[in-house]
Amino acid sequence: MIKHFPVLVIIIPLLLALIAPVAGRINRIYSWVIAFLATLFSFIIAAILLYQVMYSGTISYWMGGWEPPWGIEYVIDYFSAFVLAIVAFLAWLVTIFARKSVAAEIEEKKLPAFYGVYLLFIVGLMGMIVTGDIFNLYVFLEISSLTAYALVAMGKSRRAPLAGFRYLVIGTVGATFILLGIGYLYIATGTLNMADLGARLPGLFNSKLVITAFAFFAIGFSIKIALFPLHTWLPDAYTYAPSAVSALMASTGTKVAAYGFIRILFTVFGVRVFLEQWVSVPHFLIAVSSVAILMGSILAIAQTNIKKMLAYSSISQIGYIILGVALMNPTGLQGGLLHILNHAFMKCALFMSVGCITYKTGITSVADLKGLGFKQPYAMAAFTVAALSMIGIPLTVGFVSKWYLAMGSLENAMWYLIPVILISSILMLVYFWRVIDNIYFKAGKPIAEVEVSDAPASMLIPTVVVAALCLVFGTLAFIPVSITEKAALLLLG
Amino acid sequence: MMDFILAKYNFWIYVIIMMIGFYAVIAKSNLIKKIIGLNIFQTSVFLLFISIGKVEGGTVPIYQGVEAVYINPLPHVLILTAIVVGVSITAVAFALVVNIYREYGTIEENAILEMSKTDD
After folding, report:
1. Which CATH number covers residue B7?
2. What is the H or E stretch that residue A427 is in?
3. What is the pTM assigned to this prediction?
4. CB atoms B52 and A305 under 8 Å
């Protein structure tokens, strides 16, 4: 049983995803119960896998008993176990949050179908994390993307289907580029297993075929990650999706795509080629991600819709992750990996507390939030903690990853990246302070005098737990730091 | 020059078809035409994959008791999966277009963007 855990983490939610819509026909609540159980099982298994990896090293699972590189291999190492645990945990919390939130935002008869698609989205993400086969990665990427398009389109706003459609067009082009990259690598090496590719590619790095393959991967994944000039699908998708979907997608979707990109960079191509032959690649990525960090923050300041503001702030956070990766030294990469964890928790807390606001009041504009801090004290406290963490106040998680990113920049003698990190933090202070100022220090308008209480406990508890974890992992930083340190060393070989 | 083109003609065909599809995705305002372009775009990649499985003088990869040269079946199998993905994407895209049409009464992107300016 235990040796099948790497595949059970996917199979259980996959089977339950098919049962959820059917069970929902008997009683609507059953589909939520099944989604809850599926994500809970996945989280327990992911936690056990992380424990196993920490005590007995990398797990390699051969699908159907076929030996790699011929068969499909599932690999659980420090990096994948770490990201898997984050995704499974947040998916479970968001499912608890979703019951009331989704029921308020989606027509009742669509609920069973919603939970089926919702579980498939999680399956796609977790599949991308555990697989060690590059074509399998593409298939799971498409599962998570397809369901993401559908989930976005289920939003209440009339613009939701349009946002979903534009995301679909851009996302499909990106995924097709990734498929092309896989094809080119297959032409060059004749294998699809990531570790096998990593062993065969050195020596082929002068080949135009391999260079083109890398270019396709870089563009394709940049679209999926929403790296700055290719981010256009993200703001609308996050804004018009249902609150629970925004929380789940913002915290896990782009992170897992970043995970895929990091796998391609370090496991398939290997860090040495970027340090020795293709030195312009990390420099280019650093330049692009610096622009992403600044532009994301500047665009966020210009927004009046709070969900759109958070969406643009995601774009700058993605920049931080890619910046850490592109530094290509252990400290910087560790900062990038820590930021995957941190941003997942912070954005999850922010989107969930905004979900609590919209559940009770329907407010979407920053200006209407005046005086809400005393009417919804718990949700607003969670928002404030997560916002301070985004800015990078010491004792919050945001500070830890920014510290590592800054140290990593200095290690590469790139002092000019420090101002980028600092300026972006100040810009974040600007747009988050506007919200905090409104909710605590401005008197509410007459409309806010209407009786508004906190959201129901099933929505508040996950929100507060995630926000509290931002503080816990910020003060007890050694827990994530010790895991990401091993993961970074593993990736850098 | 001609030799260069003819030697790898499958690559040229795939690039040309791909760019036709890409053009439709970018330039067409009608959402259904965009989906058609997206399909052409994906199909070009399928053609590339299928063509790279070809082995000179190869036969069907079924073992019939004698040693023979076989074509490589793996790219074909991969593309079977990718075709399924492509069909699902088309289906989801059509479903979204139906929803968009219900909301806005048109499937011309320019008109929809004009209308949705007043939303929010």
Report:
1. 1.10.287.3510
2. helix A417-436
3. 0.93
4. no
